Amino acid sequence: RPPKTARPNTPAPEDLTTWDRDHHLHPWAAVDHWRETEYERIEQAEGIHVWNAEGRRLIDGPGGMWCVQIGYGNREIAEAIAEQAVRMPYASPWSGTNAPAAELAHRIAEMAPGDLNTVHFTTGGSTAVDTALRTAQFLNNQLGRPEKKIILAREKGYHGSTYLAASVTGKERFRTRFDRDARVHFLPDVNPYRRPEGMSVEDWCDAKVADLENAIAEIGPERIGAFIAEPILCSGGVIVPPEGYHRRTLEICRRHDILYISDEVVTGFGRLGHWFASEEVFGIKPDIITCAKGLTSGYQPLGACILSDEIMDRLAAAGDSSVFYNGYTYSGHPVACAAALKNIEIMERDRILEHVREVSPHFHARLAELADHPIVGDVRGMGLLGCVEARLGAGTLEEDSRFGEELDAVCEEMGLILRPIFNMAVFSPPLIISKAQIDEMFDILARGLDRVAA
Ligand code: PMP
């Protein structure tokens, strides 16, 4: 266990439990029993491990929330954060700039594909998505075509919790009870595992591309402003669309002047062994990329919306003096940007992208072994992203299955945290994970599946 740094006047653990239960509304809390839920308190972390309040060491399968790329307990990032906080903790992005923000914008522009050279900093993934969607609206207003506003999104996509980001989120439960922008059209599930029996993956790809073409024909391209897509639908269950899908859908969007927004909040910053997956993994150059999470390895909250030169030129050419009225008090926050710069420096120096590419085949070989388990329906993933989906009996609804929670519970007893999503368990460990640690993770998973089956 790493040495504990003393926190003076630390309240008693029982008080923390009570205060958290009585006053802290967590994301996705169940309204009918939120005062009864006791959340596990993580006290310390190092590398790929976290320690819970009882002092038990656990492998952090989800890497925080798909974000702790370089692992926990990194003193270099902590020191960069402290240094910047002492030098200058805040700078208004309206009245001036700051060195870390300027340098980070330049670094991101260098890493991003093609002409994606303009960076608007946000507070996280949702606000990056919101910015991307508002930019599409703004552009079409500027171009004098205010009717081109419908956004195409996909079933099972997850894009965040601000109003617009939640509106384009295609997870069914998100659509109930909360209001949402109605100008969104969802394309059906792209998951190859869900294709009709006997259909080839190539035919499935054709069908999914046709879904987009049909939606455009039905709605009319003059009414569609943007298409938003995660390269891999992560919260939807690590759904990898069929080969060729991204390239073909991007071409269709280009043909109809529909902005293509690639949401790389999870897939960016090394998760698939590259800074961005769009170009290097899937061979596309989107109009806008959103990123967050791995940008700082979770050490500070930060997101970015990266815009193409073409968008910026078209906005400029509109020729009036309209203002880009989007931005946050914490846009380009110097401490968050300093954390991101140090994170990128460490990832480059320690060759983290190369490491991901090197260990991924082993990760997927071990993942593939789980496919033969009698209670497993599908395993899938890419890079350091994985998902195990339960085989469900006829008539059982995916969303009513507790398989993910059950697998997580038994694996936690054996030292591994997973992220349960109904009938699935997903994992995206810190990118520094070694081959031996990958083996340890999959050994626990295999035993966990046996226990759930029993
Ligand atoms: N987009 C994607 C693809 C995500 O996975 C998430 C978060 N899981 C978001 C956007 C929202 O990011 P945030 O929670 O930082 O607002």
From TrEMBL:
**Domain of life of the organism encoding this protein:** Bacteria
Gene3D superfamilies recorded for this chain? Aspartate Aminotransferase, domain 1 (3.90.1150.10), Type I PLP-dependent aspartate aminotransferase-like (Major domain) (3.40.640.10)
Name of the protein? Aminotransferase
Keywords (A to Z) from UniProt: Aminotransferase, Pyridoxal phosphate, Transferase
Q: Which Pfam families does this one have? A: Aminotran_3
Which family would the database say this protein is a member of? Belongs to the class-III pyridoxal-phosphate-dependent aminotransferase family.
Q: Which InterPro entries match?
A: Aminotrans_3, Aminotrans_3_PPA_site, PyrdxlP-dep_Trfase, PyrdxlP-dep_Trfase_major, PyrdxlP-dep_Trfase_small
Name the coenzymes or cofactors required.
Answer: pyridoxal 5'-phosphate
Q: Where is this region: Disordered?
A: 1-20
* Species, as recorded: Rhodosalinus halophilus
Q: Where are the transmembrane segments?
A: none
Q: What is the lineage of its organism?
A: Bacteria, Pseudomonadati, Pseudomonadota, Alphaproteobacteria, Rhodobacterales
One GO MF term: transaminase activity
